[in-house]
Amino acid sequence: MRVSHPQTPRQLALWSASLVLIGLCIPAVLWLAWRSVPVAEGPAPTLEIVRVARSEADRIPADWQPPDLNPQLEVDVRAIPETLPLSQTATLSAALPLASQAFSVTAAALVVSEALNVRDGPGGEYVPLITLNNSTVITVVGRYAGWYQVVTPDQVLGWVDSDFVATNVNSATLPTPAAIPDAAPVLAAQLLPEISGANLRQDPSLRAESLEVVRPAYGDVVLLKRFDDWYQVRTPGGSEGWIAAELITTTDYIARRVPVLTASPAALAAVRLARQYIGYPYVWGAETPRAGFDCSGLVKYVYGRLGLDLPHGSREQWSARYGEKIYDQALLRPGDIIFFENTYRRGISHVGIYAGDRLIIQAISESVGVRVSSLDEAYWAERYVGAIRPFP
Q: What is the pTM of this model?
């Protein structure tokens, strides 16, 4: 028969320590087992922006919109195209067709419309060359499908709708051209044969990075857009970039159809970016989409995204040296940074982004947020100071 002996204090201490370790291990094992089981994630939290308020603690969902200020202006600014309409490209990109040959039949005629477009083909889908006023005397030299080929007083050769022309000539006696030009031709061009090659650049600037060298032997390039003295082209290999216009040859008929940018690509990118924040709240001192914007904060953020580091403050932005100053409103281009004075203090006190068509995207006030205004409104016209063009 075994007799148990009383346990020593040392043995009791060891037993107590073992029980504590077991008590700690069991929860750890259970926790690790729970972590290994996949758990369905809940919905991602909705991003929030700061309400126009005195404290950042007052938050609302990101889809918040302030009351409409002038909805039509916002529709207009979102509809502003990057390129000029074709009716404006003729005088910008190509010479007007002039009547240099003799015609077998001519007849005097009179314009009977307040404004009659002379186009470079017989149809409304052709590019307008010039506009004739009522009672302008013209010479009819041909006909095709309800259109007259005419010579204007300035010797421009083109086509007009016969319904808006008065003449005594019998249309059947007028000659019909042997060929009618394609209203939507491929905008093909060639590099000058005498050059060895042309740099295809990232942007329309000699300072821009050269992507590759395009050779005349490669074949035709397709003209995509024009800006100042540059063409954006697509090469036979599919690359896209900018080539100096002086290195490219094409017909005036083709050149008239190349869309002309209203501003540099970088400036247009600024307008596109600024348009995204129409409706965001105005928050004094803020400069991010999450926090909101004040007037100079919006400008700082938009142009910062495009690589331009601007100070925060309308006076500071006007004083900083980062672009060409523009004072004449008639010379404004989309993407110009536009400044105003005497709004809530004397001197330069407000700034916005010019979107074209006399429209400004700007963070206006706490009551309306980032909205669109017109330079034709007396308030802004009277306070206009000038603009800075950060991208040439």
A: 0.72
